[in-house]
Amino acid sequence: MIGYYIHHQGKGHLHRARCIARRTRTPLTGLSSLSRPDDWNGDWIRLPPDTGPDTIATDPTARGRLHWVPRHHAGLRSRMAAVADWIERTAPALLVSDVSVEVALLARLMGVPVVVSAMRGDRSDPAHRLAYDLADALLAPWPAALPEPGWPREWRAKTEHTGAFSRHDGKPRPDADSRAERSVTDREVLLMLGAGGAEVSATDLRTAAEATPGWNWTVLGGPGGWTDDPWPLLCRADVVITHAGQNAVAECAAARVPAVIVPQSRPHGEQHATARALAAGGLAVVRDRWPDPGDWAGLLDEAVRTGSARWSLWAPGDGAERAARLLDRLTSPTPRTGPGADADPVAASRTSGSGTCASR
To answer: Tens digit of pLDDT for each residue in 247-296?
Structure first.
């Protein structure tokens, strides 16, 4: 049994978990304050929330050592008790944390091996260092060819670089995909703002659209509409504009669509770090802030010229399968004897011929 903790912010954590759960041989139990997805086949533990409008957060970081442990907080206490109770009842072979330092620490304190879903950005704070240090493996949904700079050697040695993956990997393109048939005066741009918060106003969108005649704008998220399945719109678009969240970028890569990436402010500079990696790989047009109206026409044309051929570097198409194979290997360790018996089980698992790429 594997426990999979899924953070409730945005949609990306849940989408990744669903992709992996469909591919593991080992049963997965979801642990989250989110509702159970309809396509989740394993058990699901609905966790009590540890935040809310009435939250009084006293020393929430334990003097800077953790991220969210407010003193005497009933929601936090109930949440951690639910996780601990599940661990006690089921004795899981592994717990995946995507993402919570505190849940990873709780599982390891109870003797459960831990895989931490890694994130880009500056993770040198004490809480992240603790989680990444204690993890048996780090699961990085980006390619080893574009590593996160500055990671210590011990983190790199136990990192499984799967490449990006999304719920759309392997999905057939809809018949409506007709990019090649359009004229330069009738092209489609899709702006995806996501569910994790946006820094773009309705005025920003209006002035950008007015400055780009010949481009038809569709907006998802923020002041725009919403759909649970953006795949047809992604495939139809000549260019996608989006933030640099892992899931949004993975969906652009799955659709092999040219993109303009505008990272948003997130803790630890996560999105700006992802944007730097995309720029370094020549995968997309990147701007650090929302461009001025007069810049948009040139940026969209630049994205078309950049194209989408290099997206296969970022998302090879089998990232979820690679992640699932890692989890299955870690729950079925091969008995070892002799001088290497106490070696790192993650490093040993790499000798099984999985074909995954890891930075060393």
So the answer is: 999 999 999 999 999 999 899 999 999 999 999 999 999 999 999 999 99
DSSP E strands in 82-170: the ranges are: 94-98, 114-117, 137-140, 159-161
Give the DSSP H/E element, type plus range, for residue 265: none
Collapsing DSSP to helix, strand or coil, 220 comes out as strand
Q: What number of residues does the chain have? A: 360
Residue-wise pLDDT tens digits, 26-84: 999 999 999 999 999 999 999 999 987 666 789 999 999 999 999 999 999 999 999 99
Distance of alpha carbon 272 from alpha carbon 260, whole angstroms: 13
User: pLDDT tier at 181 (50, 70, 90 boundaries)?
Assistant: low
The pLDDT, as a whole number, for residue 184 is 64
Nearest to 256 by CA among 321, 166, 333: 166
CA distances from 54 to 35, 50, 80, 88 (A): 22, 11, 19, 31
Q: Who contacts 170 (Cβ-Cβ below 8 Å, separation ≥6)?
A: 317
For residue 225, pLDDT over 80 is answered with: yes
Q: Cα-atom radius of gyration of the chain, to the nearest Å?
A: 21
d(CA 291, CA 268): 23
Phi, psi values for residue 307, rounded to 5°: 75, -165
- 92: its two tokens: 């899981």
Cβ neighbour number for residue 263 with a 10 Å cutoff: 24
Residue 335 has pLDDT above 80, yes or no: no
Q: Which tokens in the block code for residue 235?
A: 């495939």
| β-strands 114-117, 137-140 pairing | parallel
3-class secondary-structure state, position 159: strand
Q: Which residues lie below 8 Å from residue 313, measured CB to CB, with a gap of 6+?
A: 143, 145, 146, 281, 283
Contact 243, 261 (CB under 8 A): yes
